[in-house]
Design brief:
heterotrimer, A alpha/beta (637), B alpha/beta (317), C alpha/beta (444), A: 637 residues, alpha/beta, Ubiquitin-like (UB roll), Nucleotidyltransferase, domain 5, 6-stranded mixed beta sheet, globular, B: 317 residues, TIM Barrel, 8-stranded parallel beta sheet, two-stranded antiparallel ribbon, 10 strands, 15% strand
């Protein structure tokens, strides 16, 4: 078998001849950037082959590289076959980098109430005597009742716990702590241990995302946050996007995906519990919010049928089981609560968003938007809710944009243009020299180019403007955001007309989805009390600019509210307040899911939205006024 | 009771003038006005606005023109000015629409000849003129500049602006006082977008005619028909970005399978039927100018429009 | 007027009892709004809700059937003024007229022409609908003979056109059991005509000078017990006809004048411009169109226009997927991939035929979506192309391995190439450029 040596680390691995460099890199433990899932489409996994024999169709994929890069042996790792021993350099940019994982919670609408579903009772029981021959379990349950806990007869004790009882009671000298949880079947004795451990009562809230996993450990005594952990979802090695995961599961990989999901959660749990200095065994409930596919995989349910018509999930109610049954490393018999899913695309993460926003508990009508590669939109209030989901395409996250990148160090995250000179001023993540543009930077740039009249409302660059930053690119016109000398990549960073079109098509999907829901409900933008943005994308973008380009309907900007990571926020709320679990189920039942593809007005709305901000300018009166001002400014000189 | 149509419209279609008389600095014997309607087409005891008009289309290079159209005209087609004059005299269309098909040859560069052609056509006919320029963005600027210049003062209708290429046409129209045809591919949103883009170049709304693109009968005509109805409806409902008169030409009518496969004189009749059966519905959907390529279509369309307009019972042709 | 789901939801009991078969009142409301459920499915509607929901779902234009058997037609049941608002549902019947001064042979020749004439387009057979029989002689016997001549060769829907009830009765005596349209009752003889309509169970056309008297007449006829009515709006003036038919449709669908809630009949021979009358009738709300002999070119054009106007605008016409030939392509001929949206297919086919390059068209099933929307919605994907190539045996038809895909499908080129193992050429976005593209780019 050929040996592949990776530079600069000199990490080595052996792999079968004919395998791809990508496979070798993954085997060696590198987290490669494979946005397209290894189809040779995204160009993000490029490597430099320094020596050795490989097969790579340079003609076909030549467009990804400059001549200079080609001379240095640049290849797409996913399309390059290892034919013998080779040495390969993996550039930093081709590895998945530590990115800002959004762990923040911001839930203004929902005061956190503490009504956990787990109680601990420290009991000093009187030992049995010949006069008092009541059994161990009865004795224990009576003790609980006497301490103000549930009635003896209402607590169910599972066999695993009963087995422990005689030993623990006697070894502890009848001084024990009993843990009781309220589960769908009623009260349940989940743990018995020696001594008084009532100070250690914790729960974990988990956001199981396609890309990242976030864990919060909370004290169930006072609700305080004791530890936070986050990391990548290790399933990434089986494919970057959700569809590739489902395909992986289809090819017999469900077991591996399930194990990786658990591993990822456990790793984050370990980080969080270590940082807090607590024992994972003291975590008595785990609440997980995730998208439909992720939660199905976590439960070991085959997700394959969900991505085919008619897109039905297996379960549309919350699920509970013992956390250990799926492999989570928490207390024995601890409960696992999984948020319900509504459809293939409206999963528990969205239900958690809704819970976190508080929109299901008020008469005000709100719009909730969660944007990633896919987006979800929910419209409604306490009485009714419509939801839909769609594909926004990767452009808003920097994918399929020439100099697009994720929100990694060096990404331009904010841009402003001087309307007179067209000189951009920008800010990058960690103030490094710019390497590319991430989602929030792209939105800024789009809005600023429109304001400066560099692009028209369809996104075409006005090449008639004589300016050094406006030039004809290889195929289409482009605008130079940063000159080669300023950047960290030795190339001019530009945005091309094609990039702009891709961005407009992405934003149009989101706006058209909002408009379609509003049309279905017969709601005008004036009737929307709040727009909630959930997720990383919404957290970092400029709200003003999101309205300027028509990503979301125009409402007063102060009523656009970011709720941070809504999935983890919702999971926290449900963990701390068991009464919210009923609200969760009601939300899941209440939502009417609208299939955009089947809605005849959606295509119309989409075409109307492929314009900055929208073809119907009366939907964006504030933006129109502002753009009129800008046109005057531009025409002055 | 006096039952009649129910009209609850608030909008009005803008008025567009084509051609300039001597008094206005041009050389046209008459100018035409289109638009101005406040109701659905032909509706009302006295319909509002202006009656729909029929334009006859011809080409400066007849080799790139449907045989069904040129065959009937005969030798006149070899001189564009003669062709226009002959058509005006024999078939009395309301306007002439000249397609500069010569610009479609690869490597075309002789813009001065375009100028000569337009000047000679302007001399040969007194009818208001619609001129269609190149269909290659690379030569737009030169071609439209030339057309605009050659027809300066004649207030022609200049085609065609599209979303991807509108600046050159708009610039030429503004520089030389012409109007612009704004063509979009059978979609009300795209039509509206282009109007907004044109307005933002500084071109006034009353110098835009919407061409929502018309598919031939049986080949997508129904989409065009409904888009025209929707545009008219939205305009009457008060959408000023769509309140421009429309122009419709079922461009491919004479090359559809039904015409190509018809034998002998039936081909001629089918060609005329195909134009009539798409262009008359186009006026019913809201088109202010309908364009035909077969000369025999003109009289039938005009008489039908007259009857729809004021109830004159004109004998069919 | 269709109510929006939320407007309907507000009328529902909001119990989410599931007795209608839907999980929630809101999803039931969505179905009601889309016409996919009936209000009766909800057992808890109050009277107010029933009235509103009932009114919003009953068609405002009465449904009428003419004729019997497989060629019988249904008209009416229309809901909208513009086809883009939803769709026009029942296409108008086009009736070719004969009269009782013609010989039996001449009548039969025309009837056979209507009976057998078929124009096949987009996989659909387009036909003329039936026969109008005019009384010109003015007496019962010739009329009965003419009706008999029609009946002797075909079971087509008929319009019996006689103003004299005695003449009409003679015709009905021959064909009254086959549900012809009785044309027409007028204010002076409607009682007699109503009697005949009831006796034979036939629909009845009404004629009057103004819309007001027409509405009044329809009131009289329903009072007589005849409810299957058709309003004749024929006029020598196209302007008058168009205005009248527009007014009737507006009054009907807004339910302001229920007495006008009936289909419209137009005799196109009343004006001098039969083609224009037909066009106006087809586009603007005519349901029964009678015309004298129709020239071949007009016949084709009107059938296609009717098909166009009565296509559901939300459901594009689809072409059967498969391998189509343009000219007689050889083994080295180009293969062009496109979708099964009829407009796309015909446009491309037209330009290919004009290019005079024999070739293959590989049509894949995108459920009638255009290239752009099929790519956007994921309906066009590499597996579809791969399967189509296998299914239609493309590899056996050509000696090369190159596929030309539409310009708008360019984002899929890599994936298609990989899936099918053929070379993929990205063609132009506009079919009009295909000739030039083939000339420049096509070499095997």
């Amino acid at each position: 078998m050929p040996t592949v040596t990776f530079l600069p680390s000199f990490r080595k691995t052996e792999i079968a001849k004919g395998s791809t460099i990508l496979e070798a890199a993954q085997k060696a433990g590198f987290h490669m950037n494979v946005v397209c899932g290894g189809q040779g489409k995204c160009g993000k996994c490029s490597v430099m082959v320094r020596s050795g024999d490989v097969e790579f169709d340079r003609e076909k994929y030549g467009g990804f590289f400059s001549d200079e890069e080609a001379v240095q042996g640049a290849c797409l790792s996913c399309q390059t076959r290892v034919m013998g021993d080779i040495r390969v350099l993996i550039p930093e940019g081709s590895l998945v980098q530590e990115q800002q994982i959004l762990i923040d919670i911001d839930t203004p609408g929902v005061p956190l109430e503490l009504n956990p579903a787990v109680w601990k009772y420290a009991l000093a029981l009187s030992p049995p005597t010949l006069d008092d021959q009541s059994p161990d379990l009865t004795r224990l349950l009576w003790g609980i009742e006497k301490s103000g806990g549930p009635k003896e007869g209402s607590i169910y004790a599972p066999l695993e716990v009963i087995r422990e009882i005689p030993r623990v009671l006697r070894e502890s000298g009848w001084k024990i702590t009993a843990t009781v949880a309220l589960v769908p079947g009623g009260f349940r004795l989940i743990h018995v241990e020696k001594g008084d451990t009532t100070a250690h009562r914790y729960g974990a809230a988990v956001d199981l995302g396609t890309t990242t996993v976030v864990v919060y450990i909370r004290s169930l005594i006072d609700g305080s946050i004791v530890g936070i952990g986050s990391n990548y979802n290790r399933q990434i090695s089986c494919g970057e996007d959700i569809l590739s995961r489902v395909n992986y599961a289809k090819r017999g990989g469900l077991g591996k995906l399930q194990a990786l999901a658990v591993e990822s959660i456990n790793a984050a749990l370990t980080t969080a519990s270590n940082s807090a200095g607590i024992d994972r065994e003291d975590i008595y409930e785990v609440v997980v919010a995730g998208n439909t596919i992720m939660t199905h995989i976590l439960m070991g349910i085959d997700p394959a049928y969900m991505i085919e018509e008619p897109y039905v999930p297996v379960v549309r109610r919350y699920l509970t089981t013992a956390a250990q049954r799926v492999g989570l490393a928490v207390g024995k018999n601890s409960g696992l609560f999984i948020f319900p899913a509504v459809s293939d695309f409206i999963g528990g993460d969205i239900i958690a968003d809704i819970l976190a926003s508080g929109m299901a508990e008020t008469n005000d009508i709100s719009l909730l938007i969660d944007i990633g590669t896919n987006f979800e939109v929910v419209l409604g209030n306490r009485d009714w809710m419509f939801a839909c989901a769609g594909a926004a395409g990767p452009a808003l996250e920097g994918g399929e944009v020439l100099f697009g990148m994720r929100a990694n160090p060096g990404a331009i995250e904010q841009v402003q243009l001087d309307l007179q000179t067209l000189k951009p001023s920008y800010r990058t993540i960690r103030n490094q020299r710019p390497k590319g543009l991430c989602g929030s930077g792209l939105i800024d740039l789009l809005a600023e180019l429109l304001r400066a009249c560099v692009i028209d409302r369809t996104g075409r660059i006005n090449t008639a403007i004589p300016h050094e930053r406006i030039r004809q690119g290889r195929q289409v016109p482009e605008f130079v955001v940063a000159w080669k000398e300023e950047t960290g990549i030795g190339k001019d960073i530009v945005i091309t007309e094609n990039d702009i079109k891709a961005l407009i098509m992405s934003k149009a999907s989101v706006l058209a989805a909002c408009q379609t829901l509003m049309n279905q409900a017969g709601i005008g933008r004036e009737e929307i009390a709040q727009i909630y943005f959930s997720g990383a994308f919404g957290n970092y973008i400029s709200k003003d600019h999101a309205i300027t380009i028509g990503l979301i309907p125009e409402i007063p900007v102060e009523r656009v509210i970011t709720i941070g990571n809504g999935a983890i926020a919702g999971a926290n709320i449900a963990l701390l307040n068991r009464r919210k679990k009923r609200v969760i189920d009601e939300i899941a039942r209440k939502i009417a899911y609208i299939e955009l593809n089947a809605d005849p007005t959606f295509m119309d709305e989409y075409t109307g939205s492929c314009f900055l901000p929208h073809t119907d300018l009366s939907l964006f009166p504030g933006v129109e006024k502002m753009l009129d001002q800008c046109r005057i400014v531009r025409e002055l000189p | 009771m006096g039952l009649s149509t129910l009209s609850e419209w608030t909008g009005r279609i803008g008025e567009l003038v084509i051609g300039a008389s001597h008094a206005e600095g041009g050389t046209r014997s008459h100018v035409v006005r289109i638009g101005g309607e406040r109701d659905l087409p032909y509706i009302g005891t006295h319909p509002s606005g202006h009656k729909p008009l029929v334009a006859y289309e011809l080409a400066d290079d007849p080799s790139l023109w449907p045989a069904a159209a040129t065959r009937y005209i005969g030798d006149w087609v070899h001189d564009t000015a003669d062709w226009a004059a002959y058509a005006e005299k024999e078939y009395t269309p309301d306007l002439i629409r000249l397609h500069l098909t010569s610009t479609r040859h690869r490597g075309f560069s002789d813009t001065s000849r375009i100028g000569t052609t337009i000047e000679s056509v302007l001399q040969a006919t007194r009818l208001p003129l619609i001129v269609e320029g190149s269909d290659d963005p690379a030569m737009d600027s030169a071609v439209y500049q030339k057309i605009g210049e050659a027809a300066e003062g004649e207030r022609i209708l200049l085609g065609t602006a599209e979303a991807g290429r509108y600046r050159s046409v708009a610039a030429a129209a503004m520089a030389y006082g012409h109007s612009v045809i704004a063509q979009s591919p059978i979609d009300i949103n795209l039509a509206k977008q282009l109007n907004i883009l044109l307005r933002e170049t500084g071109l006034p709304s009353d110098r835009i005619a919407i061409d929502p693109y018309t598919g031939a009968l049986g080949y997508g005509f129904e989409y065009s028909y409904s888009v025209m109805e929707r545009i008219r409806y939205s305009a009457l409902k008060g959408d000023t970005d769509l309140a421009m008169p429309m122009i419709s030409s079922a461009t491919d009518s004479l090359t559809v399978k039904e015409v190509r496969e018809a034998q002998g004189s039936e081909a001629e009749k089918t060609a005329v039927a195909w134009e009539l059966y798409s262009m008359l519905p186009a006026t019913i959907a809201g088109a202010s100018i309908v364009c035909v390529r077969h000369p025999l279509s003109i009289a039938g369309l005009k008489s039908a429009i007259d009857s729809l307009w004021n109830g004159e019972n004109v004998e069919g042709v | 007027m269709t109510l929006k789901p939320l407007e309907i939801y507000k009328l529902l009991p909001k119990k989410n009892c599931k007795e209608c078969g839907d999980p929630t009142c809101l999803t039931f409301a969505m179905k009601l709004s889309g016409g996919k459920a009936k209000p009766e499915a909800c057992p808890y509607l109050d009277e107010n809700a029933k009235t509103i929901l009932g009114a919003s779902t009953r068609p405002p234009v009465r449904k009428i059937r003419i004729g019997v058997g497989e060629r019988a037609i249904t008209i009416g049941e229309e809901l909208v003024q513009f086809r883009h608002e939803k769709s026009f549902f029942h296409e108008p019947g086009i009736f070719i007229a004969v009269n009782d001064t013609m010989t039996a042979e001449a009548i039969q020749e025309r009837v056979i022409f209507v009976r057998d004439g078929i124009l096949t387009r987009v996989g659909t057979d387009l036909r003329l609908s039936g026969i109008g029989i005019r009384s010109l002689a003015g007496s019962p016997e010739p009329f009965a003979r003419a009706v008999g001549a029609v009946e002797s060769v075909a079971d087509l829907p008929e319009v019996l056109m006689a103003g004299d009830p005695a003449v009409m009765e003679a015709g009905l005596f021959v064909c009254g059991n086959y549900r012809p349209l009785i044309h027409a009752a007028s204010p002076s003889q409607y009682r007699e005509m109503c009697r005949l309509a009831k006796k034979y169970g036939c629909p009845l056309a009404l004629k009057a000078d103004t819309l007001d008297s027409l509405a009044e007449l329809s009131g009289h006829c329903t009072a007589e017990g005849v409810e299957n009515l058709v309003l004749d709006l024929s006029s020598p003036s196209l302007h008058a006809m168009l205005n009248a038919s527009t007014a009737v449709r507006q009054h009907a669908i807004s339910r302001t004048t229920p007495a006008l809630g009936y289909p419209v009949c137009i005799d196109t021979s009343r004006g001098g411009h039969a083609d224009a009358s037909l066009i106006t009738g087809v586009t603007k709300f005519g349901s029964v169109l009678v015309c004298d002999d129709l020239p071949e070119a007009s016949r084709k054009a009107v059938l296609v226009l009717r098909q166009n106007i009565y296509t559901d605008p939300q459901k594009p016409i689809q072409i059967t997927p498969g391998l189509y030939r343009v000219g007689t392509p050889g083994r080295d001929a180009p293969v062009l991939l496109t979708v099964n949206f009829s407009l796309t297919f015909f446009t491309l086919q037209g330009y290919l035929e004009a290019s005079r390059v024999p070739c293959f068209m590989l049509i894949v099933d995108t459920e009638g979506l255009s290239v752009l929307t099929a790519v956007a919605s994921g309906k066009l994907h590499e597996a579809l192309v791969r399967d189509a190539i296998a299914k239609y045996g493309l590899a056996g038809e050509v000696s090369h391995r190159t596929l030309i895909i539409p310009g708008y499908a360019a984002p899929l080129s890599g994936r298609i190439e990989e899936a099918i193992g053929w070379k993929v050429l990205v063609g132009p976005r506009d079919a009009a450029d295909i000739a030039e593209f083939l000339e420049k780019e096509w070499k095997t």
